[in-house]
Design goal:
The complex is a heterodimer of chains A (about 325) and B (about 400). Chain A is built from 9 helices and 14 strands. With about 325 residues, chain A is an alpha/beta fold. In chain A, strand 12, helix 7 and strand 13 form a beta-alpha-beta unit. Chain A is globular. Chain B folds into 3 domains: about 90 residues, Dna Ligase, domain 1; about 130 residues, ATP-grasp fold, B domain (D-amino Acid Aminotransferase, Chain A, domain 1), CATH 3.30.470.20; about 140 residues, Rossmann fold (3-Layer(aba) Sandwich), CATH 3.40.50. The two termini of chain B are about 40 Å apart. The chains are: A alpha/beta (about 325), B alpha+beta (about 400).
Chain lengths: ~325, ~400
């Protein structure tokens, strides 16, 4: 097993005929992802990279059995694309696009909250308060990953996103992060130490993203293939503190973590819209303290992430 | 994107939020004229810079002159403007070098009964905008949040439905003000109901990332008035509001940050001497941390992004090397989308066109790494190659010593 996606996941790419969409769709296909359709409004009936292109996601779901979406449409249309994928019944929606207006995400998030609550009630469970979009039980689940994220990969099975596939190795570590290249760095360190990965997820660097660390901790904890968890956080917001508190209570698997931005000045946005220390909140020191209090192994240097994971596994 | 107080107040006025009468001036004569037009008996002359803390801040070579001054006649208005305009104002937010004042706002005085606080930001945990109110107006709200959080009241609102009347009533009860003063009329722009709802509407309509009224004044007549105003916009949504572009004041922005923005790069100026060039925001932050951990000080945050081409990366080098504090440069690239060959070609290009006057430590990994290393080796460019992160940090810190 793995989380979110595996070899039977059937992917539709929204924006497949654009330059970026086509480039990364090609890489995903080469990696072995079952990319079964593309969507570009107005270009239905064409074929790109050997897969059929439709005008709507609904057609891709109906005719090709797509159940996951990968979004490369421009930022101005991303919210619409996400809502379309959810409406069409895709369980996992991965929005790669960066630069989405935050109020657009407020509206999408609201929709996810309502959808999540409805689905959960249908299954006879209480809607979760801290995770609006993921259902309590890992399968089936509805999850939005991103926007402004590198995507999701279950090594040697399915890659939905822009990460370089070759650095990954199949194995026991679940990896989650708010950043792209820092995740590659961590995965590279793990693979070089002989620690493969179950599923790696980039949550995205925006203030409002579809999935939280807590959502993923639940899934990793429930996944038999995941034996340990490595997470990379960054300054800004309180998502890391909340994850630490959750892990302390509910996660029995060893966890290691790194926080980027110890040296970041207050009030300056560090590239990611979400990475800003504002109102004295969201500093690296607070987050590291929260991790340590939860018994999480903290990597002091970004060069130490893989080794920290090793230590956490050994100490458990 | 940030704007000036006088611009923010104009937007508030257009949105139906009550603000004092005021006129922007760029010369002492205009300031005197503004005082006369406002009709006295008193007015406030306020320095217009993007940084906060102006009231307590002082002019760099004239510590008796504060950034905000009360005046009682047109001559005093002119001399206050004279003292502020084209001088550097130093506040807690500008840093010790201060920021040049290019405009002042001359504003009619008002009868202040109480000072409150109102602010709107995005509440990340709730995934909604939040209207925050506090009875501790005029203070630094971060201090209030840290010391007396019970004095801050919050109401989330949905962008499309807007703030509801009951939410106004809840906040008014906490703030001990009347939702609609002067016998229940809600027409006046100064009534709390109209004030708060219009403010929330403005936040949504213009895709703001921050709207802050501090202090919010309750006048002796019981009406609300925005004595100060700060508005920032979500850069990602500016495409929806082309009219806001003309409010941009590039003289308030760091020239290197501006230049980087134009090249599609993300750059933040810092105080150290090690220039960093990295792909990806998370890795860029981690690289700064790494430098510091090994005893160095980063000179900047620079994320060239995933899809940068050779020209963009060359421009990144130009920006880095134009910072006179930079004594060495660390390039840390984990090629994913960004190919190592692109970076290597850009280094060679920058070497030819810009020239390196400081040591350059390069750590390459990821997509097309072997070809990238080969390009560098064959070019004969004088670089210090690093094998991993720790090695890179040690080498770049040593290079500055």
């Amino acid at each position: 097993m793995s989380i979110l996606i595996n070899k039977s996941t059937r992917v539709v790419c929204q924006g497949i005929t654009g330059k970026t969409g086509e480039f990364h769709s090609k890489n995903c296909l080469e990696y072995g992802t079952k990319l079964v359709a593309g969507v570009t409004p107005g270009k239905g009936g064409q074929t790109t990279l050997g897969v059929p292109v439709f005008d709507t996601v609904h057609e891709a779901v109906e005719k090709e059995g797509a159940n996951a979406a990968m979004i490369f449409v421009p930022a101005a249309f991303t919210a619409d694309a996400i809502l379309e994928a959810i409406d069409a019944g895709c369980n996992v929606v991965v929005a790669i696009t960066e630069g989405v207006p935050v109020l657009d995400m407020v509206r999408v998030y609201d929709r996810l909250k309502r959808q999540g609550a409805k689905e959960t009630r249908r299954q006879g469970e209480t809607p979760p308060t801290e995770s609006p979009c993921l259902l309590v039980s890992p399968s089936p689940c509805l999850a939005l990953i991103g926007p402004n994220c590198p995507g999701v990969i279950t090594p040697e099975e399915c890659k939905i996103g822009i990460m370089p596939g070759y650095i990954h190795k199949k194995g026991p570590v679940g990896v989650m992060s708010r950043s792209g290249t820092l995740t590659y760095e961590a995965v590279w360190q793990l693979s070089n130490l002989g620690l493969g990965q179950s599923t790696c997820v980039g949550l995205g660097g925006d203030p409002i993203v579809g999935t939280s660390f807590i959502d993923l901790l639940k899934l990793y904890q429930a996944d038999p293939e995941t034996e340990a968890i490595l997470m990379m956080g960054e300054i800004g917001g309180t998502a890391e503190e909340e994850a630490a508190a959750f892990a302390r209570e509910h996660v029995t698997k060893p966890i290691a973590a790194f926080i980027a931005g110890r040296t970041a000045p207050k009030g300056k946005r560090m590239g990611h819209a979400g990475a800003i220390i504002s109102g004295g909140k969201g500093t690296a020191a607070e987050k590291i303290a929260a991790f340590e209090a939860a018994g999480i192994e903290v990597a002091q240097s970004p060069a130490d992430m893989g080794a920290a994971m090793q230590r956490a596994i050994k100490n458990r | 994107m940030k704007i000036h107080e006088y611009q923010a107040k104009q937007l508030l006025r257009e949105a139906g939020v009550a603000v004092p009468a005021g006129i922007m001036a760029t010369t002492p004569a205009e300031a005197a004229d503004a005082f006369t037009k406002l009709g006295g008996p008193l007015a406030v002359v306020k320095a217009q810079i993007h940084a906060g803390g102006r009231g307590k801040g002082t002019i760099k070579d004239n510590p008796n002159q504060h950034g905000v001054q009360l005046v009682r006649d047109s001559q005093a208005a002119a001399s206050a403007a004279e003292n502020l305009l084209n001088h550097k104002l130093v506040t807690i937010q500008t840093g010790p070098s201060g920021q040049t004042v290019r405009r002042v706002l001359v504003e009619a005085g008002c009868d202040i009964a109480r000072e409150l606080y109102l602010g709107i930001v995005i509440d990340r945990a709730a995934g909604l905008p939040v209207l925050m109110a506090s009875s501790a107006g005029g203070m630094n709200i971060e201090d209030v949040a840290a010391k007396t959080p019970e004095l801050i009241f919050k109401e989330n609102f949905c962008p499309d439905a807007g703030l509801q009347s009951y939410q106004v009533r809840k906040l008014c009860a906490k703030l001990q003000i009347s939702p609609s003063p002067s016998g229940g009329g809600t027409k006046g722009g100064g009534s709390a109901e109209k004030f708060m709802k219009s403010l929330c509407k403005l936040f949504v309509a213009l895709d703001c990332s921050l709207v802050e009224i501090n202090p919010l004044v309750v006048t002796k007549a019981g009406e609300l008035l925005a004595l100060d105003a700060k508005i920032s916009f979500d850069d990602n949504a500016l495409f929806r509001h082309p009219q806001l572009e003309e409010l941009r004041d590039t003289s308030e922005e760091d020239p290197n940050e501006l230049r980087a923005g134009k090249a599609g790069l993300s750059y933040v100026q810092l105080d150290g001497n090690i220039g960093c060039l990295v792909n990806g925001a998370g890795l860029a932050m981690a690289t700064m941390d790494l430098v510091k951990l090994h005893g160095g000080e980063p000179a900047n945050f620079l994320d060239v992004g995933g899809g940068a081409n050779t020209e963009q990366v060359t421009e990144a080098f130009r920006i880095l090397l134009s910072d006179k504090n930079v004594k060495a440069v660390l390039v840390n690239i984990f090629g994913g989308i960004m190919r190592c060959t692109t970076i290597a070609s850009a280094i060679v290009e920058a070497y030819k066109t810009v020239g390196f006057n400081v040591p350059l430590v390069v750590r390459l990994e990821g997509t097309e790494v072997e070809q990238g290393r080969k390009i560098l080796k064959e070019s004969g460019v004088d670089i210090i190659a690093a094998s991993d992160l720790t090695d890179a940090a040690n080498k770049v810190v040593a290079a500055t010593k």
